[in-house]
């Protein structure tokens, strides 16, 4: 038993763990810096958000350790519970949720605000992985069938529709692209992926053409190309974010010293626009360091997906990487003015308990998969390759056995 525990610990991806700890530690400082001079936000308590974010990080790390210590096959068994819980949370948002910035995304439980759409991102990934794993068991051919693809899309469609009804366009976009990536990770044929992409474009066009999205929502979404489309909302945010990042220069103005940060010119700077604090106070060097650390997380996640011989773990790990990568690109691009202002948080850094806990739960699953991976070498076919190679090995073994008995 002791030897098994030690072997598990040795296999845990310490590079991934180190990058995550650096990011969440930096998150506490950045959130504090973004709020320390905001008396209207903190009520004069300069350490209020420091304590809150520290609690968010601590809670997330405790849950992460719990997931790491749990065999990810138990996570597989609990996936239906997580999925149903996320769906119920999204329904409650529509019934009794609080509206913030035009989206009804929050459920207030006493002193705590919960954002179920953050948990839904993880729930969709692991639910799709579970559907594929369950349908593939006992099957001679491991390749993905049309029925598998339809089943995974149906599982993902329920949370996506509920999020769209809030309406939360940013999370809908992240979920939609993540679902596409999970399907690719599962080994869906390219022609089917192309058809799905065209269907997604057609659906988006229909949503705009039929008036499901209001004009102000479209203007807000497109304000990154022309800030005058939404001068008091997203357009203003884009302009101020660009100014803040530009003021940082190469080395930044120093932590807690950013002029734009101190003046509070960038709205939602502790949440959606936390990267502007990085840019202004830590400069280009700090920004590249943060992007590099996120890149390390994504790289190690892909490596874990490639090394595991468990289908559920492989697809779930690849899906988590897709989700974190897409959301990071969207958030940083939004702050730089090259992507629409959609209001999605930056993984590991933005203030918020729901986001931090969901992300660290996902990291816990990655670490658990890495600790229980029996493969010692990197699978050069990559995590987005299905298990057809396993089929070929099985067929070769059977043919060899038949040839032996014929002799």
From TrEMBL:
PROSITE patterns linked: FTSW_RODA_SPOVE
Cellular component GO terms held in the UniProt record: cell division site; plasma membrane
Entry keywords, A to Z: Cell shape, Membrane, Transmembrane, Transmembrane helix
Topology within the bilayer: Multi-pass membrane protein
Catalytic reaction list: [GlcNAc-(1->4)-Mur2Ac(oyl-L-Ala-gamma-D-Glu-L-Lys-D-Ala-D-Ala)](n)-di-trans,octa-cis-undecaprenyl diphosphate + beta-D-GlcNAc-(1->4)-Mur2Ac(oyl-L-Ala-gamma-D-Glu-L-Lys-D-Ala-D-Ala)-di-trans,octa-cis-undecaprenyl diphosphate = [GlcNAc-(1->4)-Mur2Ac(oyl-L-Ala-gamma-D-Glu-L-Lys-D-Ala-D-Ala)](n+1)-di-trans,octa-cis-undecaprenyl diphosphate + di-trans,octa-cis-undecaprenyl diphosphate + H(+)
Pathway(s) of this molecule: Cell wall biogenesis; peptidoglycan biosynthesis
Enzyme superclass (EC): transferase
GO biological process: cell division; regulation of cell shape
EC number annotated for this UniProt entry: 2.4.99.28
Segments traversing the membrane: 12-34, 54-70, 77-96, 116-133, 145-163, 169-186, 193-213, 282-299, 311-329, 349-370
Entry keyword Transmembrane helix: yes
Localization of this protein: Membrane
Any one Gene Ontology molecular-function term assigned to this protein's record: peptidoglycan glycosyltransferase activity
PANTHER family membership: CELL CYCLE PROTEIN
Protein name as annotated: peptidoglycan glycosyltransferase
């Amino acid at each position: 038993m002791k030897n098994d525990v030690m072997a598990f610990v040795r296999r845990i991806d310490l590079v991934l763990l180190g990058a995550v700890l650096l990011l969440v530690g930096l998150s506490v400082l950045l959130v504090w810096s973004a709020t320390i001079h905001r008396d209207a936000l903190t009520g004069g308590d300069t350490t209020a958000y420091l304590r809150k974010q520290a609690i968010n990080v601590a809670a997330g790390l405790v849950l992460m350790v719990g997931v790491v210590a749990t065999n990810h096959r138990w996570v597989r068994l609990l996936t239906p519970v997580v999925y149903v819980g996320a769906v119920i949370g999204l329904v409650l948002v529509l019934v009794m949720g609080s509206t913030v910035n035009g989206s009804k995304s929050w459920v207030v439980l006493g002193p705590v605000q919960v954002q179920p759409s953050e948990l839904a991102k993880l729930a969709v990934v692991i639910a799709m992985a579970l559907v594929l794993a369950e349908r593939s068991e006992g099957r001679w051919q491991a390749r993905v069938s049309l029925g598998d693809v339809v089943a995974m899309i149906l599982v993902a469609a329920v949370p996506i529709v509920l999020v769209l009804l809030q309406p939360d366009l940013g999370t809908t976009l992240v979920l939609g692209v993540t679902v596409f990536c999970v399907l690719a990770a599962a080994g869906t044929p390219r022609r089917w992926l192309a058809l799905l992409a065209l269907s997604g474009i057609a659906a988006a066009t229909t949503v705009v053409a039929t008036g499901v999205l209001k004009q102000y929502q479209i203007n807000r979404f497109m304000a990154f190309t022309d800030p005058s489309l939404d001068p008091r909302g997203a357009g203003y945010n884009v302009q101020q974010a660009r100014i803040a990042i530009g003021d940082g220069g190469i080395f930044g103005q120093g932590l807690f010293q950013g002029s734009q940060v101190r003046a509070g010119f960038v709205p939602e700077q502790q949440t959606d626009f936390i990267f502007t604090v990085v840019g202004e106070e830590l400069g280009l060097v700090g920004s590249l360091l943060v992007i590099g650390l996120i890149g390390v997380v994504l790289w190690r996640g892909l490596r874990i997906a490639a090394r595991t011989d468990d289908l559920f773990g492989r697809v779930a790990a690849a899906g988590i990487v897709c989700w974190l990568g897409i959301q990071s690109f969207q958030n940083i691009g939004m702050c730089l003015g090259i992507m629409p202002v959609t209001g999605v948080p930056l993984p590991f850094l933005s203030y918020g308990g729901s986001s931090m806990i969901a992300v660290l739960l996902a990291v816990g699953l990655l670490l658990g998969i890495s600790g229980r991976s029996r493969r010692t070498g990197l699978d050069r076919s990559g995590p987005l390759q299905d298990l057809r190679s396993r089929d070929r090995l099985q067929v070769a073994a059977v043919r060899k056995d038949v040839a032996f008995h014929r002799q």
